[in-house]
Amino acid sequence: AGYAVDRLTWKKGSSPMGEHRFAVLEAPPRPGERWKRTGWKKYSCVAVHDDYLADVREDLQKLPVYLESIEEAGEGLEESGIELIPPESIPALLQALEEKEGFGELRPLLRRAQKEGKFVIHFGM
Predict the structure, then answer these.
(1) pLDDT digits (tens, 9 = 90+) for 63-101
(2) What angle, rounded to 10 degrees, do the helices at 106-116 and 90-97 form?
């Protein structure tokens, strides 16, 4: 079965070219915990095509994130990296996506994480 995601269709477990995946982390990240590029397969992810993220990448350059681990602070969303987006960065991310095309399923995921005070994980392409 396929899932329609912002004009894209992909099969569960597949990794289409040009897609970024986002998921809510139900538990906060722990010190020493690291994520692998294939780690997205165990989460219920929302996919966003890179073309849409490219439109807001400049706006997100200073977004405070963690790079693969909460021990490595960084900024912005990498094309091929893994970032942990802390709850305090979610309002800025939502603002950057406001009224932009291609983020229809990502916005509710971000709002849920914001409301619940949870991290969001980003898996780049």
Answers:
(1) 999 998 899 999 999 888 899 999 999 999 999 998 888
(2) 160
Return the bridge partners of 23, or none. Answer: 121
Instruction: Count CA within 13 A, CB hemisphere, residue 122.
Output: 30
Alpha helices in the chain (DSSP H): 50-56, 90-97, 106-116
pTM: 0.82
Q: Give Cα separations from 64 to 77, 89, 124 (angstroms).
A: 9, 6, 16
Residue 33 CA to residue 43 CA, distance in Å, equals 16
* DSSP state for residue 80 in the 8-state scheme: S
- Whose CA is closest to 57, among 39, 86, 81, 73? 81
What are the start-end ranges of the E strands in the chain? 2-5, 8-11, 19-24, 46-49, 64-67, 73-75, 82-85, 120-123
